[in-house]
Amino acid sequence: MPAAAPCADAPDVPDLPDAPEAAPRPRARNAAPSHGIAASNLEALPAAPGVYEFLGDSPLPLYIGKSVNIRSRVLQHLREPGEARMLAQSRQVVWHRTAGEIGALLLESRLIKTRQPLYNQRLRRSRELCSWQLPPDTAHTSAPAPTLVYSRDVDFAATDHLYGLFTSAHAARAFLKDLALAQRLCQVCLGLEARSARGCFGLQLRQCDGVCVGREPVAAHTARLREALAQSQVQRWPFAGAVGLIERDGDWTQTHVVRHWRHEATLDNAAAPHAAPVSTPQGFDLDAYRILVKPLLAGQIEIVPWP
Fold first, then answer.
1. Interhelix angle 218-229/169-183, nearest 10 degrees
2. Which of 65, 76, 159, 174 has the greatest number of beta carbons closer than 10 A?
3. What are phi and psi of 258, to 5 degrees?
């Protein structure tokens, strides 16, 4: 196609001065945050289960995390604008391989407690726990009230009829109050209110079925309470002693030695009955319990007896 001829009537256009150099654009809101981690460090990350640590100029870690794919999870961190402050201080990522996810969870929990990373809020401190205890059915003339017990006094791993795990008495009472409102239970009978001849305050608001004034049988109230609490029952340790939890990755086997919901040791391709214990706080370990209770009781992990 021939080029279009210039228009004869078009006025001459004067030369324009050079446009000023464009100012640098601010970084987009969703741009990846900057960091000081070498590309070779990131390229070496394994696509396998384990724990990773973001390190800065201090010997203490900035952040500790776990994943079934260390490489993928660390690279995801590098794209998170909300983590810009932590990433700006990061100089290196170190990792610890595990044979499976449970090993990664247990190792993460232990390292966070012992190394106290700056940006981990969850799991940082061991906590004294309390729980509601409601003994089994007996002949009651009045509705039984749960008793608040503490892990410093009671071995939660070896005690029956515990419901809920709380880090404060305030949280425990808030849980029981919410349960009372949801199930129309009497807060006087639960020990949450002072006893009154007119019954509980919930009765006046039509939030209680009236066991406190004899309108509801004690047995019915107690049965409703037990049914509601059952959803939060603390599982007693189901073995006589320690067991080994087995995870495999090809030829590599890790055995996690656990006793009373506490992680005692992890062994690689070995079954030494006198393995050195891991460094964990004493007492009932809430984090280990939460990690282990479902896969162990549901038969989702291989279990072997331990001497």
1. 120
2. 65
3. -130, 135
Amino acid 84: pLDDT: 95
Model pTM score: 0.80
Q: Which CATH architecture fits 39-115?
A: 3-Layer(aba) Sandwich (3.40)
Across 24-33, 133-142, 283-292, least confident range: 24-33
List, edge to edge, every strand of the sheet that includes 162-166: 147-150, 130-133, 162-166
- List, in order, residues 6 or more apart from 89 with CB less than 8 Å away: 56, 57, 62
Q: Cα torsion at 156, 161, 165, 171 (round to 10°)?
A: -130
- Comparing 69-73, 76-80, 124-128, 226-230, the range with the smallest average pLDDT is 124-128
Give ∠ CA 284-168-110 in degrees, rounded to 5: 35
